[in-house]
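Objective 1.3, modelling of assemblies. Example input:
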Amino acid sequence: MKKQGLLLIISGPSGSGKGTIVEQLKAKDDFSLSISATTRSPREYEEDGVHYFFRTREEFERMIENQELLEWAEFCGNCYGTPRTYVTDQMQKGQNVILEIEVQGALQVKKLYPDGVLIFLVPPNLEELGRRLTKRGTEDKETINRRIHRALEEMEFVPQYDYVVVNDTIEQATEDILTIVRAESMKCSRNKEIKKVFKGEI
Amino acid sequence: MKKQGLLLIISGPSGSGKGTIVEQLKAKDDFSLSISATTRSPREYEEDGVHYFFRTREEFERMIENQELLEWAEFCGNCYGTPRTYVTDQMQKGQNVILEIEVQGALQVKKLYPDGVLIFLVPPNLEELGRRLTKRGTEDKETINRRIHRALEEMEFVPQYDYVVVNDTIEQATEDILTIVRAESMKCSRNKEIKKVFKGEI
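Predicted structure (tokens):
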């Protein structure tokens, strides 16, 4: 019996380390990473079709019109969205899929897929978040302050998430998420055929 | 900040190995085991106040009348129940509590404590259940057949549980339950003060 893949939706403020953790998850276990479309400019190391599909605003708006996006949102002046087909194809094949998306998008997806697992990733505390954002060196002070303010706003949405993971260290937080995935796979709602399996009927 | 203890409610048919697994959990981690009251006769190795509180039917009925039981049920001609005070005291101290109870009782407790975590333990398959019950050598053939029939009936209630754990080996099933406990401790509903913790307010 082929079980449907798990849809893992990971959000967290800039500086929560979600990018690194998602890379670790891909390396450690059997996850496909959904690639988002965005109108924001690529960072130096980012490649089109690998980190994001980089699109113009016009192209992005066409994707919305054609209902090619599972969710989309505007954040700090840029649009981000999740191409629908890739996600649903993978899940039907029994493959777990990770969406790394921000709060508004995550809640849109949860409405469409109540079985999706919403995880909110937080840095251990406010000071550490400030340190991480400063260390990154890609944004000016004003942007950093805006991101900290935004982080506090986003945390108001934590109660609508399923799990909260504190990123003290990348290793621990990655292990925590794998723990959640293992527990979720034992949910009765994901094992509806258990009696038939027990009786040897399937 | 002292978090409330987790209430873990474990059920499973005779021969699912729940007794052994509960012993392993007590040995491995920070769990208190609730001691049930019962009207059934002690097995050879069982001690009053350690494995069960062995009570006469008259004594048991007095406990029901005095509302001293969190739940109770009759099963194969015997009554089983959970003394209330011990459980609530431990949880308030931040201690995790395990209840090893049968289906009817488990569902009663879940109604009273929706935050309780219901785990259904199953042997890997029907043949293995038969083998385990026969090997135990404490029941005659008729009782074994009744228990197998009862196991199949009980599995109808799995959809009302939160998790299902397959007991292939004691070690794996114990680890699975610890995984569930770790994941549950990251539930947003159990971390309502996370924003205050993040801001350093508590």
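Chain A has one domain: 7-197.
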